[in-house]
């Protein structure tokens, strides 16, 4: 992992996605009533990244495709990739389906974020992956298992991240999913086009009979309130899932000064990242607002089946469903082995672990030797203030979540979607999220998965298993149409 400089900029466009663009599916002629209004779109990681590359002469020369696609999958992350595989299996023809995503490769956001944390194992079990059969990943691991005993961990047989990634690449390669990828960002949509949807992207228009939105959770990295003023004074503060994480610089700074990287947050990513800093030769301070909370999974396994979902589906009030989703997720928790490693590191003196403490500011001070350094101001339980000298601060405080409104943190997929839903009066909960039917259909022909399907799939909708749960319903739709 050492030597990685993070950031989404500068990736080469994949040859296969360029080839896919050549397929002539873009239409640059039509105008859209629902466009992304940049002025109303706050900066957030997905929008902060460079937009898709400018159209090449080949793209400009593209002519309008006469027939709409049968399916357009928007978003090539965990959900979009798995569901595209499922749609092909359900009989959708390769020439009639595309995945549109501005990243150069499928799964780019997932790969970037998991790499940043330094996680070794997934939190979820080995039956949650991108393949079709639940036991695919164990079969894929087959021969390697004889050589390596560390491919799966614990009772739930959680897979090694590198194994999960190899398998994901295998699924993508085997089904030629990369060739279906169009590198573009969706910026608007007209659901009332002849024969289905007219979809606007930053590289031209697309026509599709059905659209499947797999655009992730949206939202902005949630920065605590003191961060803005500290940053304006030059404090070295970054967000773990922000547009850029200068890993080499912050590690070098920690090594050179002997001061810790302060990691703010109480969840699994905060714990993993602090361990990564220490593993790579830096020192770290882990600052939590509460005690370490230990939970194996993001939510109780009862949410994977009828045990909890029966009463969830019996609930007809979307606001109550939102409340159930929020209270079911174990936010700010770590699985036992991450919490164990954090405690062990703290006991061995490598990690400065501070629970029940709240950073409230960061300022520059002058040392007795005349140099200057940054200090983080902490408020402890008894309302006392303390300072800790730090080399940098990394916020692992999560991404903005659905509470009352997404107005200030960015809607999944873009604010154009939020506006479209409002203006066309799509069935929407008070939190602004879709109220889809049991086929995960928001309006006729427009399906959702991941965060956008939370009010139907339940608290694990965003997880890998959420993609598998959505797959059963999308598969049934596709088969009923063929
Ligand atoms: C560090 C980390 C570790 C995790 N570990 C686990 C785990 O072990 N097990 C588990 O079950 N879950 C885990 N999760 C949770 C979850 O599985 C992931 O967040 C997963 O990536 C969600 O998949 P997704 O497809 O919904 O979103 P993403 O992976 O974020 O993909 C969304 C895609 O949509 C694209 N997109 C967005 N807007 C547009 C647009 N307007 N036009 C075109 N494309 C667009 C984006 O570019 C992106 O590629 C983890 C999450 C994180 C961050």
Walk me through what this model shows.
- There is one protein chain.
- Helix 4 (about 80-90) runs parallel beside helix 16 and helix 10 (about 270-280) packs across helix 13 (about 335-345).
- This protein has helices spanning about 15-20, 45-50, 55-60, 80-90, 110-115, 135-145, 160-175, 225-230, 245-255, 270-280, 305-315, 320-330, 335-345, 415-425, 455, 465-480; strands spanning about 70-75, 95-100, 150-155, 160, 180, 185-195, 195-200, 205-215, 235-240, 260-265, 285, 350-355, 355-365, 370-380, 385-390, 390-395, 440-445, 445-450.
- Residues about 1-25, about 30-50, about 55-65 and about 400-410 have low confidence and may be disordered.
- The chain has two domains: about 15-220 and about 405-480, FAD/NAD(P)-binding domain (3-Layer(bba) Sandwich); about 225-295 and about 330-395, FAD/NAD(P)-binding domain, CATH 3.50.50.
- Strands 1, 2, 5, 6, 7, 8, 17 and 18 form an eight-stranded mixed β-sheet that branches.
- With about 475 residues, the protein is of the alpha/beta class.
Largest sheet: 8 strands, mixed
How does CATH name the architecture of the largest domain? 3-Layer(bba) Sandwich
The total beta strand count reads 18
What fraction, in percent, of the residue positions are helical? 25-40%
The fold-level CATH name of the largest domain is FAD/NAD(P)-binding domain
Average residue-wise pLDDT: 86
Counting DSSP H or I runs of 4 or more residues, the number of helices is 16
Report the top-level CATH class of the largest domain: Alpha Beta
Q: What does the overall shape look like?
A: globular
What binds here, in terms of ligands, is: flavin-adenine dinucleotide
Overall tally of structural domains: 2
Cα distance, first to last residue?
A: 45 Å
Q: Please compute the radius of gyration using only Cα atoms.
A: 23 Å
